[in-house]
């Protein structure tokens, strides 16, 4: 007859076997250890979607991006680019198709990680801010308000811009080079190494402060307006823009992105102009690049952001802070719209269930 210890031992063995069998079954069904692997996969897919969105949107408007920068920094006494259409025609005539896309490779090398970090940072910042907001209000069903979305977007913009700023700085210098200017930079890595060697590591962050100040309303309103517009359309369902499943069409999402881009870039544009001008400080060939054929010299010596604002307005007028705004508006509206929609479409393709608005 079996002893009580033998019985207990047998029951323990049976329990262990049952537990192992249950764990094996759950593992086959994808339940055990799903959360960590799912989280990593979701993060990677989100980063990929953000990178693709940035690359597609910027390449589509690369000619307008280059023209905007040339208008921002050109010598007011030797105008070569006088408006959007004339400027694009001049680049086409003097530099050909390659001239329209000059600097785009460097721009994509910057914007792909920038966009990936920005979209992902917005998602994480939104979750963190919403959690704090729900705790503060004591309402677990509370949703993000437009102001909170603006804050999350600003945080995302600052993080992404700071992480990739050196690439933006050298991209600006490469972009203003023309066929008639002395070619100091042969590419992004050559530009980075040259700036480090000749001007020091701090030079890679010239213009960072106005960029931070400018990116707060720019990224904040981009995300805030886009998400708030989508939320309002889904709840109110005006003009039949939302179907029964509360899904917005691609056209409607593009329109939301266009509105967001228009508001954000208009508020932030003066800081973008000052950033570009500060990035040229210390570049030995900047004067010849910006003056063209025998034009007068441009004052490129700024002691800081406030000094750059003051000298620009004093010598060129308040309108100089909005140089290149027209091609930038033509560029930003489709660019931001494409970025948001591409991001959501790619996440759908990759099978990521959570969207930025969720």
TrEMBL record:
<comment type="similarity">
    <text>Belongs to the mitochondrial carrier (TC 2.A.29) family.</text>
</comment>
<keyword id="KW-1133">Transmembrane helix</keyword>
<feature type="repeat" description="Solcar">
    <location>
        <begin position="248"/>
        <end position="349"/>
    </location>
</feature>
<dbReference type="InterPro" id="IPR023395">
    <property type="entry name" value="MCP_dom_sf"/>
</dbReference>
<keyword id="KW-0496">Mitochondrion</keyword>
<keyword id="KW-0812">Transmembrane</keyword>
<keyword id="KW-0677">Repeat</keyword>
<dbReference type="GO" id="GO:0005743">
    <property type="term" value="C:mitochondrial inner membrane"/>
</dbReference>
<dbReference type="InterPro" id="IPR002067">
    <property type="entry name" value="MCP"/>
</dbReference>
<keyword id="KW-0472">Membrane</keyword>
<dbReference type="GO" id="GO:0055085">
    <property type="term" value="P:transmembrane transport"/>
</dbReference>
<feature type="repeat" description="Solcar">
    <location>
        <begin position="144"/>
        <end position="232"/>
    </location>
</feature>
<keyword id="KW-0999">Mitochondrion inner membrane</keyword>
<dbReference type="Pfam" id="PF00153">
    <property type="entry name" value="Mito_carr"/>
</dbReference>
<keyword id="KW-0813">Transport</keyword>
<protein>
    <recommendedName>
        <fullName>Mitochondrial adenine nucleotide transporter ADNT1</fullName>
    </recommendedName>
</protein>
<feature type="repeat" description="Solcar">
    <location>
        <begin position="41"/>
        <end position="128"/>
    </location>
</feature>
<dbReference type="InterPro" id="IPR018108">
    <property type="entry name" value="MCP_transmembrane"/>
</dbReference>
């Amino acid at each position: 007859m079996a002893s009580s210890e033998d019985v207990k031992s047998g029951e323990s063995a049976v329990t262990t076997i049952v537990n192992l069998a249950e764990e094996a079954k759950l593992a086959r069904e994808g339940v055990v250890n799903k959360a960590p692997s799912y989280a990593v996969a979701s993060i990677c897919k989100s980063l990929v979607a953000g990178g693709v969105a940035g690359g597609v949107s910027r390449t589509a408007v690369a000619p307008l991006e280059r023209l905007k920068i040339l208008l921002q920094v050109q010598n007011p006494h030797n105008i070569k680019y006088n408006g959007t259409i004339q400027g694009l025609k001049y680049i086409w005539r003097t530099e050909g198709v390659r001239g329209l896309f000059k600097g785009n490779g460097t721009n994509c090398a910057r914007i792909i990680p920038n966009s990936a970090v920005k979209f992902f940072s917005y998602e994480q910042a939104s979750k963190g801010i919403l959690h704090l907001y729900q705790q503060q209000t004591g309402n677990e069903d509370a949703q993000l308000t437009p102001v909170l979305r603006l804050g999350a977007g600003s945080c995302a913009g600052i993080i992404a811009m700071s992480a990739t700023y050196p690439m933006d700085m050298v991209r600006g210098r490469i972009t203003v080079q023309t066929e008639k200017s002395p070619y100091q930079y042969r590419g992004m890595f050559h530009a980075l190494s040259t700036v480090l060697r000749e001007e020091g590591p701090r030079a890679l962050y010239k213009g960072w402060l106005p960029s931070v100040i400018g990116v707060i309303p720019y990224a904040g309103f981009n995300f805030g307006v886009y998400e708030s517009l989508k939320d309002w359309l889904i709840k109110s369902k005006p003009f039949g823009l939302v179907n029964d499943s509360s899904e917005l069409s691609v056209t409607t999402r593009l329109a939301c992105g266009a509105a967001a881009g228009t508001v954000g870039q208009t508020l932030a544009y003066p800081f973008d102009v000052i950033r570009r001008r500060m990035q040229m400080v210390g570049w030995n060939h900047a004067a010849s690049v910006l003056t063209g054929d025998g034009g007068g010299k441009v004052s490129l010596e700024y002691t800081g952001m406030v000094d750059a604002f003051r000298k620009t307005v004093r010598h060129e007028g308040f309108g100089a802070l909005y140089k290149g705004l027209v091609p930038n508006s033509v560029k930003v509206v489709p660019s931001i719209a494409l970025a948001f929609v591409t991001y959501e479409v790619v996440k759908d393709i990759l099978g990521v269930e959570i969207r930025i608005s969720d």
